[in-house]
Amino acid sequence: MLIREQIEENERQVLDRRAVFSADSAGRDKPEKECDIRTCFMRDRDRIVHCKSFRRLKDKTQVFLSPQGDHYRTRMMHTLEVSQTARTVAKCLHLNEDLVEAIALGHDLGHTPFGHAGERALNSLSPFGFRHYEQSIRVVELLEKNGKGLNLTKEVRDGILNHGTDRHPYTLEGQVVRLCDKISYIHHDMDDAERAGILKESDIPAHLRSRLGESTRARLNTFIHDIVRNSQESDEIRMSEEIESAMFELRRFMFTNLYTNPAAKSEESKAGELLSALYEWYCKYPEKMTEEYFRLYSENGEEKERAVCDYISGMTDQYSISRFNDIFIPKSWSKY
How far is residue 142's CA from residue 312's CA, in Å, rounded to a whole number? Predict the structure, then answer.
């Protein structure tokens, strides 16, 4: 028996009946020979970790644009924290940890430079709109590997596409990631806001601290325990009404006091203007994009505006600034 088959058989022995068993995956759009030692979801995880879009997450904004400090989260750190939290929940519920990890690691691959400010800018510019979860699917299905995509399983792609607040993954593993994405950013964004001196614990309403915990660590612990307790005998991943209500109230507090706070977001309008200028310029001169993105438009029949969005959304913060400077900022002349 192959090692992969031993792992698949072990899953049937130890995972909950509600879990997705690797051997029962709905498969890939392009069938492939199975690996000797890795299940399909293990392979998906590895493909995501080794792709270029994943590596670029380390230089993309989470909340603070170009923060001056070593310990503020980037989009990469957010992704890793979601993965760790989701794996903890999946292990406690005896769900498929490899599927959870693959979804979590891939869920933000399509995010823009400058975080949600960049997403809003491209959404307002593109005639097709722009949503990062849809772009993440476009990354794994088309943009990676020079137009070949990663050929991920249907379960992983469903979890990536449906990780947003108003989305509904069809696997419990996808539902775990969807909920852990929220509790992770509520946890670490508050931690970063305290580090930046924008918020302090006492700013959070007392009734929320009493219900959820008096620190970011305590609140994350509350969220995870509540999810596990309330999902053990359920056909969905859920929180108790009390904790879920408090979580969404805390989320609204974060939006009011952090995500729209001028102290944290004063540079976002500049980021939007920068991406707008790049978008208009590349729509005018699409041949100036790198070859792989220009080929989407010139050879593969993609609409020019969509190919430009693909190119810009894949940029890191610093690369987009560099391109803007190269295109729009005059350079000093020298004879030598």
Answer: 16
Read off the pLDDT of residues 142-164 as tens digits, 9 standing for 90 and up.
999 999 999 999 999 999 999 98
Q: How far apart are CA 137 and CA 38, in angstroms?
A: 23
CB atoms within 10 A of CB 201: 12
CB contact burial 240-279 (16+ within 10 A = b; e otherwise):
eeebbebbeebbebbeebbbebeebbeebeebbebbeebb
Task: For residue 268, name the pLDDT band (cuts at 50, 70, 90).
Answer: confident
Q: Which stretches within 196-303 are classed as H helix? A: 206-212, 216-231, 241-254, 262-265, 268-284, 291-298
Q: Residue 194: in which H helix or E strand, if any?
A: helix 172-195
According to the model, what pLDDT value does residue 105 have? 98
**Is residue 336 scored above 80 in pLDDT?**
no
Q: Are 46 and 98 in contact (CB under 8 A)?
A: no
Dist. CA 222–CA 293, nearest whole Å: 45
Task: Give residue 168's Cα distance to chain centre.
Answer: 16
- What are the C-alpha distances in Å from 15 to residues 80, 94, 226, 265? 23, 5, 20, 44
Convert the pLDDT of each residue in 203-246 to its tens digit.
999 999 999 999 999 999 999 999 999 999 999 999 999 999 99
Residues 6+ apart with CB under 8 A from 134: 110, 161
Q: Indicate the pLDDT class of residue 83, thresholds 50, 70 and 90.
A: very high
Helix pair 172-195, 216-231: axis angle to 10 deg: 170
Per-residue confidence (pLDDT) for residue 264, from 0 to 100 = 63
Distance CA 84, CA 88 (A): 6
Instruction: Kindly report the number of other CB atoms within 10 A of residue 301's CB atom.
Output: 7
> For residue 153, which phi and psi values (nearest 5 degrees)?
-70, 160
The residue written with tokens 């994350």 in the block is 220
Among the listed residues 47, 101, 41, 111, the one whose alpha carbon sits nearest the alpha carbon of residue 76? 111
